[in-house]
Design brief:
Shape: globular
CATH topology of the largest domain: Aspartate Aminotransferase, domain 2
CATH class of the largest domain: Alpha Beta
Helix content: 40-55%
Strand content: 15-25%
Distance between the termini: 28 Å
Largest sheet: 7 strands, mixed
CATH superfamily of the largest domain: Type I PLP-dependent aspartate aminotransferase-like (Major domain)
CATH architecture of the largest domain: 3-Layer(aba) Sandwich
Number of helices: 14
Number of domains: 2
């Protein structure tokens, strides 16, 4: 009798391609993407640009690379990005924009929703003083640790900083989760932004890749920067086909992930001593310090994997987590606290 499959709640990056995605890889029409001749990459770039309402798109190897290229395209060395202190560009991309681009990052305190206020953003924009870096870009994020950001508030922020000469970028790694939760087209959500990054390998289920979309001149500059960073991938249609499949088949089903996250949070919400909250496809638990490692080890023995963050710990639903997996996770967590 085979063992039960592992329930992997560490992240929505752990998914594996299904049969349809594998078939798309097999059937992909290939060429040299550096020469602009890979039909599958070209199709994906057009699809993503249309989805996000932008003039052009660029396929990159990862969301981190896409954010880096965007920041290099918008900012010169010594210029400044304003962004939230818990946003991925600042806290989870190894300081790449500073280490590789010489760009200053000015992190601002985020509120309980993961957002920034208009007042703090405007106060952070530097005056024209040779002692100070030039504030050049505001980088926002949606979702922020699963929390959906208000598109209207982002619109106000973008309009205010653009009037001061700044560009506006959106790290939309999980943008489609926000789109599904808001029941609002992604193009409407990102309309105020000069550039937007969409990750293909998180909730959308592709094994690799991200899209960067914006104006024609911006994407032309980004393409050159991608090459400088070693991102020319030649016959990249093999992996671009996965991204195309993801955009065609795996967007609407994100609602299933949100519902399963709700069921998971509801299923363990009555456990004394375990605060629980849920946002889109993420459930956050806060075990007591003395329970942290024992709980992790108990769940691992039950074939349920959770992250190694310090509390709160993130449990993430995705296309490889079905209803049975949620039931097993709820049962295993309850068993520890019985």
């Amino acid at each position: 009798m085979s063992a039960a499959p592992i329930v992997d709640l560490r992240s929505d990056t752990v998914t594996r391609p299904g049969a349809g995605m594998y078939q798309a890889m097999v059937e992909a029409r290939l060429g040299d993407d550096v020469y602009g001749e890979d039909e599958t990459v070209n199709r994906l770039e057009t699809t993503a640009a249309n989805l996000l309402g932008k003039q052009a798109g660029l396929f990159l190897s990862s969301a981190t690379q896409a954010n880096l290229v965007a920041m290099l395209a918008h900012n010169a060395r010594g210029e400044e990005i304003l962004l939230g202190e818990e946003y991925h560009i600042f806290c989870a991309e190894a300081g790449g924009v500073s280490a590789l681009g010489g760009i200053v990052m000015h992190p601002l305190a985020t509120d309980a929703s993961g957002g920034l206020t208009l007042e703090q953003v405007m106060a952070a924009i530097k005056e024209d003083d040779p002692h100070l870096p030039i504030s050049r870009t505001l980088a926002l994020e949606n979702t922020v640790s699963g929390r959906v950001q208000d598109p209207e508030h982002h619109r106000h922020l973008a309009g205010a900083v653009r009037a001061q000469g700044l560009k506006v970028h959106l790290d939309g790694a999980r943008l489609m989760n926000a789109s599904i939760a808001l029941q609002q087209p992604a193009a409407d959500i990102v309309a105020p932004f000069d550039s937007v990054m969409l990750c293909l390998s998180k909730g959308l289920g592709a094994p690799v890749g991200a899209m960067l979309c914006g104006g024609i001149e911006f994407i032309a500059r980004a393409r050159r920067l991608r090459k400088q960073l070693g991102g020319g991938m030649r016959q990249a249609g093999v992996i671009a086909a996965c991204g195309q499949y993801a955009l065609e088949h795996n967007v609407a089903r994100l609602a299933d992930d949100h519902e399963r996250a709700r069921l998971l949070a509801e299923g363990i919400g009555d456990i004394v001593g375990l605060p629980v909250r849920q946002h889109t496809n993420m459930v956050f638990i806060e075990p007591r310090a003395q329970d942290l490692e024992p709980l992790r080890q108990h769940l691992e023995a039950a074939q349920v994997l959770i992250g190694h963050q310090h509390p709160p710990i993130r449990l993430v639903t995705h296309l490889d987590v079905d209803d049975d997996a949620i039931e097993r996770a709820v049962e295993a967590i309850h068993y520890y606290y019985r």
